[in-house]
Specification:
This protein has about 280 residues and is α+β, with helices and mostly antiparallel strands. It has a domain of about 70 residues. Helix content is about 40%, strand content about 15%. A hairpin with an 8-residue loop joins strand 1 and strand 2. The longest helix is centred in the middle third of the chain and has 20 residues. About 15% of the residues have low confidence.
Length: about 280
């Protein structure tokens, strides 16, 4: 019988003597040095770990007046040319400034050449009572791996828009909302856009407007049952903004409302039904 050979051991012994050419070693070293560590993930947890480096005097240099004006002019030109009303930003009644949406924030970061890395910096998950709270932090990183900006967002299931809903049913929505708020906050910060935009449209109060000049007793006497209250203009505008973002036509919305609510026109639904539709749209974002 022939002698058995351990091919793996033989191959490893031969490969151990092979050295890469000097030029190849230099190329490998350069490639490793060019990969920003800030763009990598921790091998064990896969969570993003931003590097902390001392800021040098050169790194902290401010812009000149000319550079600052040029930045603002180019940013405004980009917004006016590229961003789309109803898709990238929303117009909300009674608000002096439009609200920046997630898609608009993403376009701005792409224009600035920044990569967003999200970290859930704090979370509370109480499955006994169905309470969930998330704090997200977004780091904006350039191609060199330098953090150029940050944003933070917090959402929990006791907020007005979620408090009347089963906490377990909106856990994922709340998590996504925290991340979305952090992303929009980061885009507003790094682009110096507070003068042009306000916070994300999802943070607007979509509850019925308060009626002034009446006592609580007067309001209660003339108040319709909550389930029968008609949709408010704020809810309707918000719903139509979401319809535009998801390419949902009025005909398709009318058909859905007819099938699920028995209403031919989506503009005639109740406030509770509008809230249901809004939550369905947000759950798929």
């Amino acid at each position: 019988m022939g002698k058995q050979i351990d091919l793996k051991a033989l191959l490893e012994s031969k490969m151990g003597n092979i050295e890469p050419m000097e030029g190849s070693k230099i190329a490998i070293e350069r490639a490793e040095m060019s990969v920003p560590h800030n763009l990598m993930f921790d091998a064990e947890s896969t969570e993003f770990k931003p590097e902390t480096k001392p800021v040098t005097a050169s790194g902290a240099r401010g812009l000149t007046v000319e550079e600052a004006k040029s930045f603002d002019d180019e940013m405004n030109r980009f917004i006016d040319t590229v961003l789309i009303a109803g898709v990238d930003y929303g117009i909300i009644p009674s608000c002096k400034k439009p609200t920046l949406l997630k898609s608009g924030a993403e376009k701005i970061l792409n224009y600035l050449g920044l990569i967003a890395r999200t970290e859930i910096s704090n979370r509370v998950e109480d499955y006994n009572i169905g309470f969930f709270s998330y704090e997200a932090k977004v780091y904006l990183i350039d191609y060199n791996g330098v953090v150029k900006g940050e944003g933070i967002g917090i959402t929990n299931t006791r907020e007005g828009k979620y408090a009347k809903t089963n906490g377990y049913a909106v856990q994922n929505t709340v998590l996504k909302m925290a991340k979305k708020r952090a992303l929009v906050d980061a885009a507003l910060n790094v682009g110096n856009l507070s003068a042009r935009f306000t916070q994300d449209v999802e943070d607007m109060n979509i509850e019925p407007d308060n009626v002034g000049g009446k006592s609580p007793e007067e309001l209660k006497q003339g108040e319709k049952p909550k389930a029968d209250r008609p949709v408010t203009q704020k809810q309707l505008k918000y719903l139509e903004t979401l319809m535009g973002q998801h390419n949902t036509s009025a005909e398709a919305m009318n058909k859905y409302c007819k099938t699920n609510f028995g209403v031919d026109d989506y503009k005639k639904i109740t406030g509770v039904q509008a809230s249901t539709l809004i939550e369905k749209f947000k759950a798929v974002e």
